[in-house]
Amino acid sequence: MINNTNPDTIVALATPSGIGAIAVIRLSGPHAIGITNRVFKSRDLEKQASHTIHFGTIREGETILDEVLVSLFIAPHSYTRENVVEISTHGSPYIIESIIKLMIKEGARAAKPGEFTLRAFLNGGLDLSQAEAVADLIASNSSASHQVAMQQMRGGFSSELKALREQLINFASLIELELDFSEEDVEFANRDQLKQLILQITRVLTRLIRSFEQGNVMKNGVPVVIAGKPNVGKSTLLNALLNEERAIVSDIAGTTRDTIEDEMTIGGILFRFIDTAGLRKTEDIIEAKGVERTHEKMRQAKLIIYLVDPLQSTDTIKQQTEEVGQLHIPHVTVVNKSDLLSPQQQQELATLNPSFISAKNKEGIDELKDEILRKVNLHKISTDDVLVSNVRHVEALQKTRDALERVLYGIDNPVTSDFLSMDIKQALHYLGEITGTVTTDDLLENIFSKFCIGK
Ligand code: GDP
C-alpha cells in the first residue's frame, strides 16, 4: 500500500540535468533539515525560521563542494507538507552529483519519479487531479494548454466535484439508513429531492464531459490535416506555415509518402499540422498505404485545409471540394498558386469562398491563419472556465453519469433501496477517483511514474 506514515527523506535534482547557471537540489522528509545541516557550514539550520534563505558552503569532510543558498520550508508549510530544503548550487553536473551522493551518505534516499508530488497528494496538499495538473503544467507548450493546466491545478475543477459528491454522500447515508429499517418500509431520503440533485449533478457532469473535447485539443493540439491532390503545394504550405523546411518539397507527384506532423501555435492555441500523401488512386504499394492513412487522418482531424491547384479546371476543383464537404468536418478551401491565377479564374472560384494563397511566395499565409482560428472556433477560455483535459477524468465522469442514470431509472421505476444504494455508491466511487478520495496503488503508480524525477 502506498502510504506516507513513516516517510524517509528523499533527495533529487529539481532542475533539468546538464550544465546551467544554477541547479536546485531538493530534499523532503523529516530529516531534510538535519541532513543538510550536517554538511552545511554557516548558521545552524535547525534554529532557523521557515521560508528563510541561508548562504554557506557544502562540505564533504574538509573539501568545499560548492557555495550554495539553502532555502528552508518547515512542515507543514511546504509543497510536500514535510520539511523541505532546496539547495541552489552552481549548475555543474559534477557538483550536483557530489552533493546528491553526500546527502544519500548522510541518510537521504534518491527520490522516485513524481515522489515529491505524490507526497504532496498523500499529505493532503493537493488532490489527485491537481497533482496531475502539475505534470500538465510542466508539459504545457502553448498559452491554451497552460491555462487549462493552471486552472486545474488551482482546483477549480475538483472543488466543483467535491461539493456535488458531498451532497450525494448525504443521500447515500439516508438510503443506507433505510436499509437498516428495511422491514418497516420507511423513506428517509426524499425521492423528489434525490432526483433533483441527481439531475443537477448530471447536468454538471454533461457540461464537464463536453468540455473535454475543447480541453483535450487545448492540451494536445488541434489536429489539422492539409489535404489535396499531389503537387497542389501541401508540403510547401506546411513549410510556409512552420516557416522552416520541414517537409520534402519536390516536383515529382507522390513525394510525400507518409504523413508528417508538426506543431505550431496560432493565437495561443497549439495546432498539429499533418501533411499527407497525395490523395490519388495509386498502384504504388507504399504510397497506397499513405493514401489510406490520409483518409484515416482526415477523419480524425478537427479541421481540413483542402488545397486546390488553379491549373485544374474550375469544374474539377468544384467537384473535389464537394467531396471534402461530404466528410462533415470543418474545412477551409484554399486555392494555392495564386501567382499563376488568371483574374477570370479568380472570379469563377470566388463562389467557393476560398482563401487565395501562394505558398511558394508566402502570400496570404497570415490571412489563412486567421481563417483557421475562425473555423476551429475555440472560444478564448477565461481563467474561470472549467475544462476537463484528462482522459482518465472524462472516463470517470462518464462512468459516474452512467451510474446516476441508473439511479434515476431506479427512482422512476421503483426499485428497493439496496439497488439505489449500490448505484449511488458506484457514482461516489467514480467521482472520488478523479480527486483521489478513492485510489488504488495501481492508479497512483500509473499517474506518478509518468512524472520526472525531482517533481
Ligand atoms: P504536394 O505534393 O502537394 O506536397 O506539393 P509540393 O509542396 O511538393 O509542391 C509541388 C510543386 O508546386 C513544387 O514545385 C512547388 O514549388 C510548387 N508550388 C507550391 N506552391 C506554389 C505556389 O504558390 N506557386 C507556384 N507557382 N508554385 C508552387
TrEMBL record:
Residues that hold K(+) according to the record: 231, 250, 252, 255
Primary site of residence: cytoplasm
Cofactor(s) listed in the protein's UniProt record: K(+)
Entry EC number(s): 3.6.-.-
Cofactor binding, per record: Binds 1 potassium ion per subunit.
Residues that bind Mg(2+): 235, 256
Transmembrane segments: none
Record's keyword annotation contains Cytoplasm: yes
Gene3D superfamilies, alphabetized: P-loop containing nucleotide triphosphate hydrolases, Probable tRNA modification gtpase trme, domain 1, tRNA modification GTPase MnmE domain 2
Ranges of residues in domain TrmE-type G: 221-377
Pfam families from the UniProt entry: MMR_HSR1, MnmE_helical, TrmE_N
Binding site for GTP: 231-236, 250-256, 275-278
Protein keywords: Cytoplasm, GTP-binding, Hydrolase, Magnesium, Metal-binding, Nucleotide-binding, Potassium, tRNA processing
Compartments it resides in: Cytoplasm
Xref: InterPro entries: G_TrmE, GTP-bd, GTP-bd_TrmE_N, GTPase_MnmE, MnmE_dom2, MnmE_helical, P-loop_NTPase, Small_GTP-bd
Record flagged with keyword Translocase: no
Family in the record: Belongs to the TRAFAC class TrmE-Era-EngA-EngB-Septin-like GTPase superfamily. TrmE GTPase family.
Subunit and partners: Homodimer. Heterotetramer of two MnmE and two MnmG subunits.
Biological function: Exhibits a very high intrinsic GTPase hydrolysis rate. Involved in the addition of a carboxymethylaminomethyl (cmnm) group at the wobble position (U34) of certain tRNAs, forming tRNA-cmnm(5)s(2)U34.
Name of the protein described by the UniProt record: tRNA modification GTPase MnmE
Organism of this sequence: Paradesertivirga mongoliensis
Gene coding for it: mnmE
